[in-house]
Specification:
The protein is α/β, with parallel strands linked by helices. It has a domain of about 140 residues: Rossmann fold. Helices cover about 40% and strands about 20% of the residues. The chain is built from eight helices and 13 strands. Strands 5-10-4-11-12 form a five-stranded parallel sheet, sandwiched between helices. The chain has a four-stranded mixed sheet with strand order 7-6-9-8. The protein has a two-stranded antiparallel sheet with strand order 1-2. Helix 1 crosses helix 7. The radius of gyration is 20 Å and the shape is globular. The two termini are about 10 Å apart. Bound molecules: guanosine-5'-monophosphate (5GP). Guanosine-5'-monophosphate (5GP) binds next to strand 8, strand 9 and helix 4.
Length: about 220
């Protein structure tokens, strides 16, 4: 059977119907395990790539332009915002941050999923600008004690720094009701599998599968 709507699954196998990509947002207070989960998802799933934000802040040692961020001047970023080139943006202290629209839209059209590591404010804007494509997941720590243990890690940060982080984490945690899914990260492998399951189910949503009507009609006519 020939089918113009077809595509490939994550193993490169031909499938008769392909789905539009998903914008997968992971948010969490720092220390809840978001970075570990993001890294594992990207390693295990070739259909998923990370959205690279644009920022006006200078690169830190080791950061690479086009990988960690697109490092641009303030007028460049302001011009992008004015032209509607950002899906969302924010000013954090004296710097601008934003998600360039074009690479995300291209990926979604091609059936590739995009992972976003942004906070609740960015997620709210994405929900306003691209609700249909958005799937948001909030990662919670299993307990406050465990979060504190993870935040302290092996670094010997001063007590004041740890207190500040805990207080910021508490503010961030209050935003869980704005998310589609919530994963309590007790066991990291289990949490990775949970987010993979969310992504898998979201890809199968009827509204994301392109050309279903033609596909089914084709079979009914053939039969
Ligand atoms: P940093 O400068 O430490 O990399 O990031 C500072 C803050 O900016 C973090 O809270 C981070 O989540 C936020 N941020 C980074 N990229 C974006 C983005 O594209 N959009 C928004 N809204 N916030 C961002």
């Amino acid at each position: 059977m020939s089918n113009k709507q077809g595509g490939q699954d994550m193993n490169g196998q031909a499938v008769p119907v392909r789905s539009r990509g998903v914008m997968l947002v992971l948010s969490s207070p720092s220390g809840a395990g978001k970075s570990t989960i993001s890294r594992a998802l990207l390693e295990r799933d070739p259909r998923l790539s990370m959205s690279v934000s644009m920022t006006t802040r200078p690169p830190r040692p080791g950061e690479v332009d086009g990988v960690d961020y697109f490092f641009r001047s303030i007028p460049d970023v302001q011009a992008m915002v004015a032209q509607g080139g950002m899906l969302e943006h924010a000013k954090v202290f004296d710097n601008y941050y934003g998600t360039p629209r074009q690479p995300v839209e291209e990926a979604l059209r091609d059936g590739r999923d995009v992972l976003f590591d942004i906070d609740w404010q960015g997620t709210q804007q994405l929900a306003q600008n691209a609700r249909e494509d958005l799937v948001s997941v909030f990662i919670l720590p299993p307990s406050l004690e465990e979060l504190e243990r993870r935040l302290r890690g092996r670094a010997q940060d001063p007590e004041e720094v740890v207190r500040k982080r805990m207080s910021k984490a508490s503010d961030e945690m209050s935003h869980w009701p704005e998310y589609d899914y919530v994963v309590v990260n007790v066991d990291i492998e289990d949490s990775i599998l949970a987010v993979q399951a969310i992504l898998r189910a979201e890809r199968l949503k009827r509204t994301r599968q392109m050309g279903l009507a033609q596909f089914v009609n084709g079979m009914r006519q053939d039969g």
